[in-house]
Amino acid sequence: MRLNLRVWRQQNPGAPGAMVTYEVDGISRDMSFLEMLDTLNEDLILRGEDPVAFDHDCREGICGACSLVINGDAHGPERTTTCQLHMRSFADGDTIDVEPWRAAAFPVVKDLVVDRGAFDRIIQAGGYITAPTGSAPEAHATAVPKADADSAFEHAECIGCGACVAACPNGSAMLFTSAKVNHLNVLPQGSPERETRVLDMVARMDDEGFGGCTLTGECATACPKGIPLPSIAAMNREWLRAVRKHGGN
Amino acid sequence: MSTDHARTDHAHTDHAHTDYTHYGTGDPIADTKAPEGPIAERWDRRRFEAKLVNPANRRKHTVIVVGTGLAGGAAGATLAEQGYHVVQFCFSDSPRRAHSIAAQGGINAAKNYRNDGDSVHRLFYDTVKGGDFRARESNVHRLAQISVEIIDQCVAQGVPFAREYGGLLDTRSFGGVQVSRTFYARGQTGQQLLLGAYQALSRQIAAGNVEMHARTEMLDLITVDGVARGIVARDLITGKVSTYYADAVVLASGGYGNVFYLSTNAMNSNATAVWRAHRRGAYFANPCFTQIHPTCIPRTGEHQSKLTLMSESLRNDGRIWVPKAQGDTRPAAQIPEAERDYYLERIYPSFGNLVPRDIASRAAKNVCDEGRGVGPGGQGVYLDFADAIRRMGRDKVAEKYGNLFDMYERITAENPYEVPMRIYPAVHYTMGGLWVDYDLQTTVPGLFAIGEANFSDHGANRLGASALMQGLGDGYFVLPSTINDYLARHPHQEAVDDTHPEAAAAVREVRDCLAKLLAVDGDRTPDSFHREIGELMWEYCGMSRTEEGLRKALARIPEIREEFWRRIKVPGSGEEFNQSLEKANRIVDYLELAELMCLDALHRAESCGGHFREESQTPDGEAARRDEEFGYAAAWEYQGTGAAPVLHKEDLVFEYVHPTQRSYA
Predict the structure, then answer these.
(1) pLDDT, greater one: B434 or B495
(2) Mean pLDDT across chain A
(3) Are residues B441 and B399 in the same domain?
(4) Would residue B357 show up in a list of annotated catalytic residues for this protein?
(5) Digit-coded pLDDT (tens) for A1-25
(6) Residue of chain B minimizing CA distance to A10
(7) Does B324 have pLDDT greater than 80?
(8) Which of A83, A98, B238, B456 is close enough to A59 for a disulfide, judged by CB 3.0 to 4.6 Å?
(9) Residue B333: Cβ within 10 Å count
(10) What does B127-151 look like in DSSP terms, one character per residue?
């Protein structure tokens, strides 16, 4: 396959960026999208040019590092992570636009690499169960109904990639935040911190500069792990319940 | 110190010998920390005999933790909970991305919830036997004891393990054992356990007890008078090289499988932290013990950048086969039952498809070498779920393995519900690592190694679902107990700063290496060298090894190293985000580590676990151990680039599990 790539190049957070066109040839349909970019970068290095910076690590769809907007879609045309997108999803001769996540809360570091530290800080605000090592009761002391355990798991699958934010016209992090709130709040172990968790995480999310949610649903469509849209409604209920109980926020 | 050649059974004189193979044998090394007495009481006794640090004094101690995977994340969180000041590092943009996250299958624990005859002693026994009698009994027994606490801890953190309809935890059996002791969270157990540790760590970051440095990579260890006192690290965004000082340093930086270029490791997993610690005096043990995982997706072409593992839990219900005839290219569905060879079930009737990983991998290689492999290039075998779908129904299969089937289909564009999967072995895990004693301390005082970074618990072969157990065991329970003893005995270390000659020298060496990489301006990319060394290692130090092949590799590696420093091209500068520079700097270490791996494989002229020497096999082609000569862990002391290292042997004593030739027939 021969492709025209239009790639966002930006030297550093302060520098202006621009789309730069590259042609790549000899691309196999079995390559992943990132292996196609590897091919481009090998060429660029040999030509003495700066290779395109992009985040990636596990390349099996679980670490959440990769983060490209491809032809306007977060992670591209398939419902998967960029690393699991293969070139068979494209046609010979295609022109493909490659951009970083674009959101006020995710500033560009270089080229296609952004800073997602805001997600870490949302988790730090309450996305945990306080259970210091050694303090745990025997695992079978508390039975958890299978439906609750399955629901917790479904939300815990979030890989923290940020596609939800990138896809949202408002740059909202509601799906990410609700995934963690619902994972922990549905479990008996998470119940003692149920109210403070949702209040603190939502407050932190707002402080980080993410936009508000207008329920466009783009987030759930882009999510490679299928975190469901009703997750947001469930978090809103948790939040209202917590405000009623604790007042204020 | 005596000097002897790499041991050989058949003296080959027709190959070029490099000086590197003329290694010396130094003083034996021994663990002095595990107490005497009944094995089941040793961990209690050690914890009692270890000195403690007064809780009020702990905040005066700084501990550096490098890495945020299961071992590092758990250790950082737990040390901070105890009151220590933790300074932690990861090269990813977030601690949540460590490669532990990709572990699929599960985590072992001797809970005996199934009432199927499991016990701490059985888990201990299985692990020592599975490791082919090359692990230290005291450590393994402790791991089995701790396994039950790990599950309790993770459940308390909200890890959503699979559960039965009654609300209790589900388990499954896993490669190489006959009890059902593996706890799991669908095919994403590593992810869920890692997020548990990450969340505990996040709580401590928010509390100000952990100072977290993301996108920061350790590039050297700072020792003062032979004691670990800090690290040199590079901020990967700005390129700034900085020093960090502490009372103890913990390496939780993972394994070194990426020396093979193609492996199931993440692209950025690397050996730099452990290798540079090795250069500063930490012995490296059993580097040739690498695990080749039998169930990975075969490669598709030259462009392949990494390999993807399919959880071996698939072997519980999938049946592995190849055509009986050589060169049979018919589609799987057209090959009648009578013309299929379910070779694992045939050769190992009692374990069948559940034999340990090393055995399953080698068997796949053998049938492919016979010309009976399937798929492109004949480098694959079938893993077939047709029987399982008939027996359990498609829905039940989907519930158990759905995400794995989806992943397979995304990568190969083949639907495993309709056609059998194709699998082939790939490098997956490294049992070798920095030598540590029972306290997980390396030969450098104050330097500890936990998780895959150390060599301790898996011997020559790791059993499935034991890596997560060991990583969390080391991080949550072992290190936080044993490090107290070291800190209590070294209470008021003199402050070190950048003016100290040893610190200044470490910084200078790091800067010089980076500058040299940028200055060559040659005509080959970092990846081209990485691929070359990786292919060499796969060919000669992979699934099966020979003296002849290892000597070829040992002759070739110094040549590649020389060419590297002549032809490497790294664009850009060191004062910016520069992924090519990161990569090239890691390859510098692979080019030395590869040499040690080959030497270790050459010197160990026996087969054991994942290390198969063709010269040492039974008449029916199984690995033949030679306990009299090789019943030891090989700990190597660094002597300089390309200079023959010194071998220190730790004799392994088996008081409880008597070594026998493994039999899975």
Answers:
(1) B434
(2) 97
(3) no
(4) yes
(5) 999 999 999 999 999 999 999 999 9
(6) B577
(7) yes
(8) A83
(9) 10
(10) HHHHTTS-S-HHHHHHHHHHHHHHH
Site of tokens 């040019």: A49
Q: Which domain holds residue A77?
A: 3-110
- Domain of A225: which CATH number? 1.10.1060.10
For residue B76, the chain A residue with the least C-alpha distance is A133
Other Cβ atoms closer than 10 A to B488: 15
- Does residue B15 carry a pLDDT above 70? no
Across the A:B interface, residue pairs with CB atoms under 8 Å apart total 212
**Token pair listed for B24:** 């010396």
Q: Indicate yes or no: CB of B266 within 8 angstroms of CB of A119.
A: no
Distance separating alpha carbons of residues A180 and B365, to the nearest angstrom: 43
Q: Is residue B62 in a domain? A: yes
Claim to verify: residue B125 and residue B219 sit in the same structural domain: yes
Enclosing domain of residue B387: 293-428
Residues B338, B281 share a domain: no
For residue A44, the chain B residues in CB contact (below 8 A) are 571
Tokens of B469: 């157990």
Same domain, B435 and B540: no
| Contacting residues of A for B166, CB less than 8 Å apart | 143
pLDDT of residue B13: 39
> Could you say which of B81, B199, B306 has the minimum Cβ distance to residue A132?
B81
Query: Which single residue is written with the structure tokens 């790294």?
Result: B570
Q: Chain A residue with minimal CA distance to B199?
A: A128
What are the structure tokens assigned to B261, written together? 């270029």
- Looking at the fold, whether A168 and A87 belong to one and the same domain comes out as no
Same domain, A140 and A154: yes
- Picking from A61, A87, A110, the residue at the C-terminal end of a domain is A110
Q: What is the mean pLDDT of residues B332-348?
A: 96
B415 and B445 in a single domain? The answer is: no
Q: Are residues B555 and B453 in the same domain?
A: no
| Closest CB from A58, A138, A144 relative to B101 | A58
What's the token pair of residue A43?
Answer: 């060429």
Q: Alpha-carbon distance A187 to B172, whole Å?
A: 23
B448 and B517 in a single domain? The answer is no
Query: Number of structural domains, chain A?
Result: 2
The verdict on A181 and A103 lying in the same domain is no
Instruction: Provide the pLDDT for residue B9.
Output: 40
- Averaged pLDDT for residues B113-139: 96
End-to-end CA gap in chain B: 44
Give me the number of domains chain B comprises: 3
**Does the structure show a pLDDT above 80 at B432?**
yes
Range of lowest pLDDT (A46-50, B313-317, B572-576):
B313-317
Model pLDDT, residue B14 = 40
Structural domain contains residue B262? yes
Q: Please, which pLDDT band fits residue B175 given cuts at 50, 70 and 90?
A: low
Show Cβ contacts of residue B115 under 8 Å, excluding neighbours closer than 6 positions. Answer: none
Tell me the C-alpha to C-alpha distance, in Å, between residue A181 and each of B88, B96, B194.
26, 17, 17
A18-24 sheet: strands from edge to edge: A18-24, A3-9, A95-100, A68-70, A73-74
Report residue B11's pLDDT band, with 50, 70 and 90 as the boundaries: very low
Cβ neighbours of B55 (radius 10 Å): 9
